[in-house]
Amino acid sequence: MNATQTSRDTSWYPHHRSPRQFIPLQQIKVAASPGEWHSLGADPLFALEGQLPLPGWNMLELDEESSVSGVVATLTLESSRRQVTFDFPVRQGKVTKRLVFVPFGVKRVTFVPMNAAGTFTLRHFQFVWLTPMFAHNRLLQRLANMHQHYRDLPLAEVKQSLQQQASKQSRKWQSIALEDYDSTFISMSTRRHYQQWIRQIEQRRAPSDHDVAIRTNVHAFESSVLLVCPHCSATNECLDDFKHKLAISLASLAEQALAPRRVLLLITPGRHKELSDWLKQWQRELSVLVVRETEALSVAAQRLEALSYCENTWVWFLRLGDRLAENALFYAACIAHDNPQAQMLIADEDSLDEHGIRHSPVFKPEYNPDLLLSMPYMGRAVCYQHAFVPRLAVESCAGQVNNANWLDYAQTLSVTRRRDFMATKLAHIPHIAYHGVPEQVSTSFVSLVQQHLNQLDTSAQVRDGLLSGTQRVRWPMPSPEPLVSLLVPTRNGVDILRPCVDAILDRTDYSHFELIILDNQSTCTETLAYLHDVEGRDSRVKVLHWDHPFNYSSINNFGAAQARGSIIGLINNDVEPIEGTWLTEMVEQVSRPEIGCVGAKLYYPNDTVQHGGVILGLGGLAGHAHRFFQRDEDGYMGRLKVTQNLSAVTAACLLLRKSVFDEVNGLNEADLAVAYNDVDLCIKVREAGYRNLWTPYAALYHHESISRGADDTPEKRARWLSEYAYMRKAWGELLDSDPAYNPNLTLVHEDFSLR
């Protein structure tokens, strides 16, 4: 491959250096398409030849297109004295830039383009030599934006902190800064790096014996208890296999940092006779109460009977062969103490393969009602106060009396139907507390969720979702259908505006809307002619003129004041609906009285995801979930294909009721003229008691920020910094603890990788 295939001509820029050739060394072959390569495994390797980077600080620029999301590239610099490596995530459609310090005497440079099998194209690859002063400023700026220890500190204070650390360690502050800087580029995939995360992160965070002793003694956490009901009445199971599974479960309880008071085991008389002596050995280590069933009961009946023997405060259901994590009871006790109102604890969990190796971690959000209707995301790792445990009647289990997954889901849904239920009665344990053996048989939960919604006296209809084991809930459309006012700010740019407006008018099945184009001082004659034409030929279109300097918040507040509809739609002038049902789905959702803002699934023109909802805290303030994922990918936990509650959604396509918009005083004109006003609006709506929602069933293309341009001038940069500072001051605590996310997941990347 020639350097000209991946970089611009740099012959006139002596500090810009690009390799002339990429020589495949292993697991790489040329693909059929020009410039495309095949990675044949997890360790494809190039050697770079020609124009190696200059010694000192360099900015590496990489633009790589990959068929796989969430991959990491690695650069290795080798000299006669040492070898240094740099990892950085690959982002679709985005140039990745990161600082590297190139030592003197580099003789060989190798490059791993991705750590997975797939195809890739190198569009741009370049080293740019930097002055030390410029490099140091970029170091400090990224630490202030991205690193949890320096976030929101002025650059001078970041440098002072680094200098203090350097003095104590007898090192250069630049070396410490580079290590911390490097850590912000680490992307640990839940699929590829989970074992590494367990070793490096989870084990380091584990409580010490001293921690357990102190919290136990001070807060009397020993009163927290455990009930095990592994549903082990099957007589046709091999005895050795049965003993092996039961031993795995019991051993996980014996190893708890905080010991349970009682383990309750239901077992058939015949199986108990076979295991009597073996169980007595376990009773020396654990307080095991063995209850012999009078008959072989269903799983549902077992749970009811087991609860009748339980005298303890807290209850877990542990399936045969599953394990509680070593510190599960300790973490549960701590969370229960810190949340005394909680009657139900939801923990993170993972799965066990046939060799007992952990995989597929599920790092859950806090209580997320619409996600719960879409999928049984609470899973198995749920701990109840005894008095709060749903006692499901066996006759109500609709033929699912032996389906533990169905029963777990039914129990959690039953809790949310209680008249006294409040979200505060649920607390999240942000630790892996449960290791489960995956079920091989998939289950449809459509009838269960339909039954649940019927008992809530709704008219919603449930059908299969986009993924197996998920559901789509269709909410009733109000009668009469509400008028929707779609607000589209614009200035010139008819080539952008025309396809947006024409697509909305032509590709929207929901017809009861008005489209208000908010013209902000357009001067282009073609644009003005189009505005006149479209307003004249379609009665749904109205053009309003805003003759003031650009202020996104002011323009939309002006439009909302003129809108006739009971529902407001904030729509960018660079979006295009993909299918006609987009607005129907959003109106059905936003018409629910408990729902505030509703957002859509947005794609870039190359069919990668632009917006899967907004996660607070990403990149220091807020970022788009699953950005650059491929269109057909499911996303983490399948969350790209299920309706769910999120703290915020983008105003590129956002609906909310006009009454809610007015209640929170609309968009913030004074402090957020351009950026983050949609995030601020969503947070205000959430703080007012409404749930924001994102749906994958409304899909549009988004040509992001084409019309406004980049923040590439000193004035725009200063404005952005001011808006960033306002958001951090106004919502800083919320921005660092998004309840729709999980504290074990990254705040640097949009890919739900591990923190």
Describe this structure in words.
This protein folds into four domains: 3-183, Galactose-binding domain-like (Jelly Rolls); 223-436, Spore Coat Polysaccharide Biosynthesis Protein SpsA, Chain A (Alpha-Beta Complex); 444-476, no CATH class; 486-735, Spore Coat Polysaccharide Biosynthesis Protein SpsA, Chain A, CATH 3.90.550.10. 31% of the residues lie in helices and 25% in strands. The chain has 19 helices and 33 strands. The strands form seven sheets. Strands 22, 23, 24, 25, 26, 27, 28, 31, 32 and 33 form a ten-stranded mixed β-sheet that branches.
Task: Summarize the helices and strands and which ones pair or pack.
Blueprint: E1 16-17, E2 21-26, E3 28-30, E4 36-39, E5 45-49, E6 56-66, E7 72-79, E8 83-89, E9 96-102, E10 106-112, E11 118-129, H1 132-146, H2 155-169, H3 173-183, H4 194-205, H5 209-219, H6 239-254, E12 263-267, H7 269-283, E13 288-292, H8 299-309, E14 314-316, E15 323-324, H9 328-338, E16 344-352, E17 358-362, H10 369-374, E18 382-385, H11 404-416, E19 426-436, H12 446-455, E20 461-464, E21 471-474, E22 484-490, H13 494-506, E23 513-519, H14 525-537, E24 541-545, H15 552-562, E25 567-571, E26 575-577, H16 582-590, E27 595-603, E28 609-611, E29 614-616, E30 622-624, E31 644-645, E32 653-657, H17 658-663, H18 677-687, E33 691-702, H19 714-735
Parallel strand pairs: 12-13, 16-19, 22-23, 22-25, 23-24, 27-33
Antiparallel strand pairs: 1-11, 2-5, 3-4, 4-11, 5-10, 6-9, 6-11, 7-8, 7-10, 14-18, 15-19, 16-17, 16-18, 20-21, 25-32, 26-33, 27-28, 27-32, 29-30, 31-33
Helix pairs in contact: 1-3, 2-3, 13-14
